[in-house]
Design a protein that fits this description.
- The protein is of the alpha+beta class.
- It folds into four domains: about 5-10 and about 80-165, 2-Layer Sandwich (Alpha-Beta Plaits), CATH 3.30.70.270; about 15-75, 3-Layer(aba) Sandwich (MutS, DNA mismatch repair protein, domain I); about 170-225, 5' to 3' exonuclease, C-terminal subdomain (DNA polymerase, domain 1, Orthogonal Bundle); about 240-350, 2-Layer Sandwich (Dna Ligase, domain 1), CATH 3.30.1490.100.
- The protein has 13 helices and 13 strands.
- It has helices at about 10-20, 50, 60-65, 80-95, 120-135, 145-150, 170, 185-195, 200-205, 205-215, 215-225, 255-275, 310-320; strands spanning about 5-10, 30, 45, 70-75, 100-105, 105-110, 135-140, 160, 240-255, 280-290, 295-305, 330-335, 340.
- The longest helix has 21 residues, at about 255-275.
- The structure holds thymidine-5'-triphosphate and magnesium ion (MG).
- Magnesium ion (MG) binds near residues 8 and 9.
Length: about 350
């Protein structure tokens, strides 16, 4: 039997801010955009004190401000959060090399080979993280990744939840289907239409009915997931599929020259990013959202993968030339995909070509 541990930091960005500014401890803190709630932008995360007012990730900052006007609003400081994330990941690496870094504040690892009891391992990790960073995390331990992730979310913040196969009926089945990885808002609404609200409801649906509605692979996934069955391996190394950036303007822009200038800058950032990580890309996709939210994309695929700023920029401009810019623009973004490993460049030469 495998033992998989999932760790997820509590209110990560907000906790890092509260840690470095102790005067914010115990206060509602909202992190998002450039920290000005009168401007456009969305909430990246909110401290648990702010969540009591209904503030949550992905909500417009302006809405958060209405719900919780006395919260402290702060800009996103990725650099600091990434630094902290690296520090935590390094520390986790001391426990086992079989780690999957699943996001900036979460990781899975296989503890099957560690002889200590699960709760002891979890407590040790929590203690180390707290000593070295002053932050809290929530940990879930289960026979697979699917259940471990559900478990880590069950008693947030500072939680420790251990789920065994015997617990599935009592503790997993009452949860809403949304809690299963791979069930988003669309599918859960569809399932609800079929009278399936909880994971337990899903577990009582016959396999052939699920396959009929959702296709062979997703249907079977749902059938097995509802029974807590999941064999996904720990993936210790990810190849990125694409790299991109997009900007939402403070004020919608009509000026074509200015848009091109911004596009050139964003493209340079993306190219620097793929080069820093040693990748070359083949497809360049432009995204433009107009002030009325109408959104268009245009893509260009090159003959071979490249990390040349000139070639990628030319492709980006090709794309924008194929769009009729008849309205003010709200957002512009560029993405380079079909990435392949090239050789990483030293950062000193990144901006040279
Ligand atoms: P989460 O782990 O989803 O959230 P969290 O750590 O803030 O809170 P919880 O205690 O519930 O785990 O995401 C980790 C970080 O990723 C979060 O601190 C901010 C960032 N993030 C965004 O920028 N936008 C989002 O929509 C989400 C969900 C997270
Ligand atoms: Mg988290």
């Amino acid at each position: 039997m495998r033992r998989i541990l999932h760790i997820d930091m509590d209110a990560f960005f907000a906790s890092v801010e509260q840690k470095r500014r102790p005067e914010l401890l115990g206060r509602p803190v909202v992190i998002g955009g450039d920290g000005d709630p009168t401007k456009r932008g969305v909430v990246s995360t909110a401290s648990y004190e702010a969540r009591k007012f209904g503030v949550h990730s992905a909500m417009p900052l302006r809405t958060a401000h209405k719900l919780c006007p006395y919260a402290v609003f702060l800009p996103v400081d990725y650099k600091e959060y990434s630094r902290m994330s690296e520090q935590i990941k390094k520390l986790l690496g001391e426990f086992t090399p079989t780690i999957e870094h699943a996001g900036i504040d979460e990781a899975f690892f296989d503890i099957s080979q560690i002889t200590k009891p699960s709760d002891e391992i979890a407590k040790e990790i929590k203690k180390r993280i707290s000593q070295e960073t002053g932050l809290t995390c929530s940990i879930g331990i289960a026979p697979n990744k699917l259940l471990a992730k559900i478990a880590s979310d069950m008693q947030k913040p500072d939680g420790l939840t251990i789920i065994t196969e015997e617990d599935i009926e009592q503790r997993i089945w009452p949860l809403p289907v949304r809690k299963l990885r791979g069930v988003g808002p669309k599918n859960s609404a569809y399932l609800e239409g079929m009278g399936i609200k909880t994971i337990g409801d899903l577990a009582s649906a016959p396999l052939n009915k699920l396959i009929e509605r959702f296709g062979k692979s997703y249907g079977r996934y749902l059938y097995e997931a509802s029974r807590g069955m999941n064999e996904s391996p720990i993936i210790t190394h990810w190849e990125p599929k694409s790299a991109g950036r997009e900007i939402t303007f403070q004020k919608d822009i009509y000026d074509r020259q200015l848009l091109r200038k911004i596009l050139a800058e964003v493209t340079r950032e993306v190219v620097n990013d793929i080069r820093r990580r040693g990748y070359k890309g083949k497809t360049v996709t432009l995204k433009v959202r107009f002030s009325d939210f109408e959104t268009h994309t245009r893509a260009k695929t090159l003959y071979e993968p490249t990390d040349s700023l000139e070639q990628i920029r030319r492709a980006a401009f090709d794309c924008i030339n194929r769009l009729e810019l008849k309205k003010k623009v709200r957002l512009i973004g560029i993405r380079v995909s079909r990435l392949e490993k090239g050789s990483p460049l030293p950062s000193a030469v990144l901006d040279e070509t």
